[in-house]
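The instructor's notes for this session suggest beginning with a concrete chain rather than abstract definitions. Hand out the sequence below and ask the class to guess, before any prediction is shown, which regions might be ordered.
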Amino acid sequence: IATDADREGEAIGRELLDHFDYQGDIKRLWLSALDPASIRKAMANIQPGESTESLYQAALARSRADWLHGINMTRAATLYLGNGSRQVLSAGRVQTPTLALVVTRDRLIDNFVPRQFYELDAVVTTTDGSLLLRHAPPVEPEDFRIYRKEAAQTLADACQGQSGILQVAKERKRQGPPKLFTLAGLQKSCNKLFSWPASKTLKIAQALYETHKVTTYPRSDCPYLPEEQQSDVSAILAHLNELDEFYNLVPGEPVIRKSVFNTAKVAKASHHAIIPTTQAADFGVISKDEREAYLLICQHYLAALSPDHVYNQTSVSITINDTLFNATDKVTVDPGWKRLFRNQHKISSQLPAGLKDQTEGLMKQVDVVERTTTPPDHYTEGTLIDDMAKVAKYIDDPALKARLKETSGIGTEATRASIIETLKTRKFLKPDKKKILSTSAGQQLIDALPPVVSSIGETAVWEDALEAIAQGDKGLDEFIGGIEQQLRVLLESVSTMQPIQAGAQNTNFPCPDCGKDMRRLQNKSKGNYFWGCSGYPDCKTTLPDNKGKPGKSTPAPQADDRYPCPACKNPMVRRKSSKGFFWGCSSYPVCKQTLPDSKGKPGIAKSAQKSKAEHAGGSCPDCEGGQLIKREIKKGKNIGKSFMGCSNFPKCNHFSWK
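After discussion, reveal the predicted structure:
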């Protein structure tokens, strides 16, 4: 077996063997990189098949449990909570917690109440010049913000005009380059730079790997390279040096770092970081978007091999009346890898040149500055992908947090984009420019489901059990039995919960007839939207949709006594269809008489028009049995011209110009 070096790769290999009923000896090639050196190393250490059998059991457990959970919770949610809607209310171990992340963020923003707070900015003069310092509370700023302007002003007055001794610390610092790309990192960057959805980035990365062969395998969650790939560095740099985009930016002497080349880190993953291959890209063949993604991957690879960013950091502080003011200043010494990132290395000093430690400073002016608290940002697809990978930060339990860090969050590099697409397709999430927002239907679903279904920590509990299976400490049947038991409890809970209006949008628009909320619904057959009363079926009021809001109701057409029906003598009614206005009998459906509209009045029935036309031209001279009828040419150079044709067409092909 030479599939991916993880439990899912193990499952693919074992299922193929099962499919073909293979009963022979099994060997396992454990390989996380495809460069020649890594392949040779793995070939020299082929393992017996029994050593990885437990991984297959863990993969089966994951697959069966996800299927059981997903299909049962989706059916239960759709049937019990859907309130008769035809929309599928899908629920899944990863999908639902992902939706919950967005719902929680959106509600934090919706419920956020801005609050004014006050900071102190001080202009301090010294013999070397003036500098600006800011009041620095001793602990977390959120806990010690000053919310009363009077208190801030009192503190400012107590400090202004006072003198103190400046503490000046100067230090040379180094900053290493950003980590190489995982798929999540690439998706986040492409969303930020190019506004691409995660699914588009994955598609492009797959094309660069599979079609053009200029980058490595894209579905990776590991930002490291095996040490064996150091031998490829010179070849890759050689063809990158030919690109105009990296003129004078390719390092002459690449820096080999443990933070980049780390075989031990790669051994714990299925694949290494996404990097350019030794094959040069043909920009005449790849698309514009593929070129953008390729250059971004190359940029990060070059940064990983470039020197550190070196800067001088100066920290200045002064204490006046037990109140600390400080500032930090950075000045670039060597931009290093930051030369590859436009405008990131241009850092200049904001402090006086030659500022010395233990210099006396005078608080010449202390200003009270009003500021306002701000809510967190809405998710973008990029930041949502990133949070799915780093979801452990939202968990308080140390053991669960550690497990989620170890498993790289919820979902996998290969599935996160499709999960977001599914949530958008189900109308639980919606794109809004660069943002991704939860819909009312998505929020209602999260509210209606038992909390454990949307819990991020539940994935960590599963992963603990799956790891125990992989280590041989727990059986597959035992794990599935526990999942089934939990599902029975959840299904019973869902069956007793209040149904929601699936696919509907909560609003503040009252029904004009009964006062209940109107909801925006989609016509499943036509695809268009309309508004219906939430009191249905007791109230059947509907309104047209007007740019996402209820439109005005169309008054029912009134019967006109001036125009009696030619069939039953009841009044005719002017109506409108998708093809325009027409007249119908007011006693419909008893009488189904219709007439065309002629300038707001009933016209002549088509049957009567045809009868009149049949007698307008006399008998056909060719067949003598038909009547000549006036017609119009429908296409060709004579389109619109009238001619006389036989009523016996196509048996008789008589034609003459009128």
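Then share the key points. Confidence is low (pLDDT under 50) at residues 502-506, 611-615. DSSP finds 17 helices and 23 strands in the chain.
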